[in-house]
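ok trying again, last paste got cut off:
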Amino acid sequence: QVQLVESGGGLVQPGGSLRLTCAASGLDFERYSMSWHRQAPGKERELVANISSLGITQYTDSVKGRFTISRHNTKNMVYLQMNSLKPEETAVYYCKAPDYWGQGTQVTVSS
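nice, full thing came through this time. structure:
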């Protein structure tokens, strides 16, 4: 049974930082690309960042230079370091492996 469990969300002031963690189990982790997505209230879910099995990263334009996705294959973990956060980035952030989603973690950017 595949499980993806996100953690690290919370309330942060504009300009602040958070580090999200996704713990994966039940899959051959190092073979898969992993990604982070987010869904703001009233909006569609969007891709934020992706990391391939070889560690090649891609980002949506709005987060380039501020967010960093990384992975630790022996720990079956994916991370999203988010810096200089903006209020409009308030959303539920989801970890995704091919065909599987985590339950999400809430990130609220507000003063």
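cool. The first strand starts at residue 3 and ends at 7. The two ends are 40 Å apart (CA to CA).
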